[in-house]
Amino acid sequence: MKSIVNNLLHSILLPRGKKFVPDMSLQVGWEKERIVNNRRNVQVLYRTSPAATHTVILAHPYLADARQFYLKRGYTDMYSTLGCNVVLFDFNGFGESPFKDFNYEKDWAAVAAFCRLTFPDTQLTGHGISFGGSHTITYATHNIHGVDKFIIENTLDSNLSYYKKRNIRLYRLMKFLMRLSSKVNANHDYIQAASSMQHQGVLFIYNYSDDLTTISMGNAIMEKCPEPKLMAKFPGKHLEAITLNPDLYKNTIRNFIFDRSST
Prior knowledge:
Blueprint: H1 2-13, E1 31-37, E2 40-47, E3 54-59, H2 68-73, H3 75-81, E4 85-89, H4 104-118, E5 123-129, H5 131-140, E6 149-153, H6 159-166, H7 168-180, H8 190-194, E7 202-207, H9 215-224, E8 229-234, H10 241-244, H11 246-257
């Protein structure tokens, strides 16, 4: 019964998850791995760079494209030119990862464990954008997560903020469900979660004209996050930092990952 209810809620609250259209041409040159452990079933793509000292795990935003977002927008090529191993995955219920539940940090845990085994001598950086950034924050609160640094980009202060902005009916539904049970929508206050992040450095990326994940949200999350941390602000709207300012974006990422001069 619980699984039936969860599947229904997934269809209502996250409908883009069922609209994935695979583009096989994007996977040329990539290794494909399905992680099945601890009751998780997560699809992963990865590409290695010769003599890489860094591995980057990319957690996708709430889009039907799921992991393909990074392949289409130039993130994977950027990281490869920086000499990093690049790992992509679909959260459960998105892309090629079948829906299991709303515990997305467990998907993160499965992918991080895979990377620690596959790339044991590299620094791990987790880069999450929007929806992916939210669950990257949640995962970073785990006491032993094995990821060194995090990049949190265009990320909400709470998932309620998304519904209130994008779909007021779903916002009201969520508020109603929260009144029925305290377990509904638990662990989705990302400002509070940020206060418990375990890390060696966090880079926050936000856009001046983003009216969904605003700079004020980023500032509130960053304020709670333990040091070391820094913020990079770019022109443009939601998800536009890399497309409008590719060179500055790449340099910002490079400086952070490789401990070069401050962004």
